[in-house]
Structure formats: structure tokens, C-alpha cells
Amino acid sequence: MSRATTPVYSGAQIRDAETPLVEAGAGPDMMRRAAHGLASYVLALLRSDGKIYGARVLGLIGPGNNGGDGLYALTALRARGVDAQAVLVADRAHPQALEAFRAAGGRVLSSVPADTQVLIDAVLGTGARGAFTLPDVPGLAEAVGTSTVVACDIPSGVDADTGRCPGEALTAEHTVTFGGAKLGLLLGEGGLRSGKIHTVDIGLQEHLPEPAAWELISPEPTRRKPRLGDHKYSRGSLQVVAGSPQFPGAAQLTVGSAITSGVGMVRLQADATVSAAVLQGWPEAVMSHGRGAKAFDGATAAAIGPGLGKDRSRLVEGETMLRATVESKVPCVLDASGLELLRGDLLTSGDLGGQLILTPHLGEARRLAEALEDESLEELLADQPDTLAATRALAEALGATVLLKGPSTVVAGPSGGAPLVVRSATPGLATAGTGDVLTGIIGALLATADAAQEQDWVRIAAEGARMHAAAAQRLDPQGFGHFGASALIGALRE
Ligand SMILES: NC(=O)C1=CN([C@@H]2O[C@H](COP(=O)(O)OP(=O)(O)OC[C@H]3O[C@@H](n4cnc5c(N)ncnc54)[C@H](O)[C@@H]3O)[C@@H](O)[C@H]2O)[C@@H](O)CC1
Ligand SMILES: Nc1ncnc2c1ncn2[C@@H]1O[C@H](COP(=O)(O)OP(=O)(O)O)[C@@H](O)[C@H]1O
Ligand SMILES: [K+]
């Protein structure tokens, strides 16, 4: 896709890519490469932590090839002087790998030693099926709390395709994954359990299909910088319909983040009290006195929804503006109470256009699925959601771009291209009002965007989510979470 993105595959895609190589006899070679990559990563961790010689590493070994990778990695670590031992959690283990491990002096223990520094989780990989139960090994629970857990390919118990954990699962601080990143490492529960992800090349490249998704990892240049001859009308103009007497702050946050993200003009459509409150913080905001579609004249994008609450007249205004943008195909971001406007023909047309970006959180997405009376979508969004499939399905059902917010944000367009994923280790964002900031950022990106292809709406929305997470990271690198949504706006300047 672009250099800012990296491919993400389903477990099945990786397995299918491996098949011809395994059939051609390359299985052992791939396993050696995987094990070498895992061992090198663990060595680097040990080195940064102190010394390698005599360091205590324990591999938790399962019955299949994942356990095989683990045993070969332990063997390689022993060759470097690491005190690497194994606990077998099943009644069998990869025979050749076990033989190699034993030949290198490795011992099979029946408990996890208390002084374990690194615990390698090599119980289950992409061959995992159904619910997983944590092995009953003495000392394991304690070691999970005190050692650094490194997952071999994927944390055991995590589904490689969805990130769902149908039973128990291990949580890793690092995952060394083979052949390509798996969806399950980024999405849902899996995204919370995989820690830092490192991908090892095992020679699959030419056998891999188009990825199931792309992860956006660094800035996407979606906007143009101001040019020497620019004036305020040529740099894009964003029309905001936000705020109500009950939620004036939402308008402040949306307007403020749009202004800070860089746009020629931000115009707000709101009542007098909200306008006055917004002007106090953002005197550069322009109050829009027109109402309805007329107010929209000249705007290059719109942001509708934050803080409209249940205020009837504000919602009517939002709906008029929404219809005007859909009709004229002007890019628009629709968030929060604005999503409630998707009723009747707006809900069922199936053709709102990729330029309309919906930004629901999980609860809002569930309400949309309910309104659509789409049971399979409701199922995808239930307890342990399949956020990738759900975002795609919602985008297709509405014929719009959908950005599903969460620890991993997924963005999909209406015509089925590979979604983009933004994974942010920034739980400090879980505070009221940060969604309004995201709406302002995306609004500004839409207003100043150069591109107009459908896939670009996905890219622009994802870039908004990346900027949002990067601002949180910059503001709060230690992850204390001692900040609110207004402070986030200040951290938007890159
Ligand atoms: N195919 C290949 O040649 C390669 C595979 N590699 C490794 O192989 C892994 C996949 O290996 P496998 O296909 O052998 O599968 P796994 O090693 O992931 O697990 C399969 C074994 O676990 C058992 N099992 C499955 N679900 C379970 C559950 N919920 N609870 C308890 N036991 C369960 C199965 O009965 C089977 O014996 C990858 O994750 C990767 O680590 C790498 O070595 C690269 C090359
Ligand atoms: N645990 C988390 N980790 C990272 N980001 C999160 C987490 N929880 C929420 N977020 C982000 O915070 C924002 C919250 O938005 P939203 O739920 O709409 O809040 P509000 O409506 O109060 O503004 C979203 O961008 C979401 O992705
Ligand atoms: K594993």
C-alpha cells in the first residue's frame, strides 16, 4: 500500500502460504528461521537487561510446531550460554526439536523456577482451535507476574484471525511472530495481549496473498502544507455542527482540534450560548449564522454530531447538514449523537458514499447494527467482537466509510478494500471528550485533503486516528493517563 503501512494477515493466509513450502520439504528450514528469530530477540532482551551468560529462560512448550519453534529457540539460546530449560505442557512434543534440545543439555522441568527472567510462551500458535485452558504448572502463575513473557508467534489462547480469546489466554510483553503479522495480534483481546510485535521473515514473502488488512504505523501524508500563495479560503473550510446547551464542551473540543490540525477556516453552527463558550477558547472560530444547507456554502468538509445530545432542534440542523453533504458528496465526519441521524432512508440507502466517515465506538456500532436489524452484524459486535469483520460489514451495509474506535481502531470503506488498523497503546485516551477531538482532526483532514479516491477516505480517517494516538503518546509517554481531552488538543502539533 504505502511505506507508512505494514501488511497484516489472517492465520489461515499464513498457513496457506506455508503449505507449498512444507510440501516442498522447506518446513524444517522455516522452523529453524523462526526459532533463530525468536532466540535473537530474546538474546537482545537479555542483553539490554544485563548479561546473557547464565540468564534464566524457561520455555512453556506445547504439542505442535509452535512448541517445536520454542524448543529450537531454547536450543539456540543454550548455545549462547543461556540457562534455557523447558516445561512440556502436553503429553507429546515435536520429536526432533525435543531431541535437539536434549542433545544441547536442555532439561525438562516439572515446574517454572521462581527466578525465571524470560518466559517463552510456545504452547499454541496458529494451530490453536477452540477454548484454551492455562496449563496447570506449579510456579507458572507467579512467573507470569515476575518474568518477561515473550510469545512465540502468538500468545496462546488468542485466535489468530480475530483476536478473540474463547477461553483463557496468556499475555505477553513481546510477541515474535513468523512470516507476517497476524490480525489476532492487533485486534480485540489479542491486541491487548500481544505487547510489542516483532515480525521474523521465514521466506514466505512470494507465497503471501493480498493482506487481510494494513496497519498504519507512521504518518500518511494526506494533507497538503500551506502554499506561499494560499489564502484562508484556499486552505479548506470546515463546517461544524456540534454542541448543545447540555454539551457545549463537545463543540469546543471539535472546533479546537480542527483549528489545531490546520485548516483555513472553521465555522461553527450552534446556538448563542454554545457559540459564546466556544469563542472564549477559540476566538479564531467563525460563527455561522445561516441555517440549514445554506450555511454550508463554500465549506470543503463538514463535521457533525459531537454534543448534539437529544436536543431536537440541534438534531434537525444536523440532519439537514448531513443530507446536504451526502447529496453533494462533500466529505463529512459523523460522530456521537450524529450517528443517531442514520434512520429511515439514510440508514437503508446503502449508498451514502465513502466520503461520509462514521466514527462509532463499540456501543454506537451496536446501536447501528440493531437499527439495521442485522443479526449477523450484531453477532460480530457481541461480547468478544470481531472488529475487522464488523467494520467491513457496517461499511458495506451503509455504503460509507466506517472507523470503529477502540484500543485498536479499524477503518473500512464501502467497497471492500483491505481495512486499515491503527493500534495505539494509549489507554489514557479512554476519557470523555477524546472522541470529539478525533472528530475535529478528521474534519480538518477532510477539509484539507488533496485526494478524492474512495480508498483515500479510509487512509485519511486512519491518519486522523494515528494523529490522535500520537498526540496522546506525546502528551503522556509514561502512560499515567493524567490528561483530559483539551490537553490532547495542545499535543496535536507535530
Ligand atoms: N507450518 C510450518 O511449517 C511452520 C509453522 N510454524 C509454527 O507452527 C505453528 C503452528 O503449528 P501447528 O499447526 O502444529 O499448531 P500449534 O503448535 O499451534 O498447535 C497445535 C496443537 O495444539 C493442539 N491444540 C489446538 N488447540 C488447542 C486448545 N485450544 N487447547 C489445547 N490444545 C490445543 C492441537 O491438538 C495440536 O496438537 C505456528 O504458530 C508457528 O509457531 C513455524 O515454525 C514456521 C513454519
Ligand atoms: N483503551 C483504550 N486505548 C486506546 N485508545 C482508546 C481506549 N479507549 C478509548 N480510546 C480512544 O479514545 C477515543 C474515545 O472516543 P469516544 O468513545 O467517542 O469518547 P467521547 O464520546 O467521550 O469523546 C477513541 O478515539 C478511542 O479509540
Ligand atoms: K504461542
UniProtKB/TrEMBL annotation:
Note accompanying the cofactor annotation: Binds 1 potassium ion per subunit.
Top-level taxon: Bacteria
Domain YjeF C-terminal residues, every copy: 215-494
Ranges of residues in domain YjeF N-terminal: 14-210
Chain positions recorded as (6S)-NADPHX binding sites: 65-69, 125-131, 153, 250, 307, 361, 436
Family, per entry: In the C-terminal section; belongs to the NnrD/CARKD family.
HAMAP family: NADHX_dehydratase (MF_01965), NADHX_epimerase (MF_01966)
The protein's name: Bifunctional NAD(P)H-hydrate repair enzyme
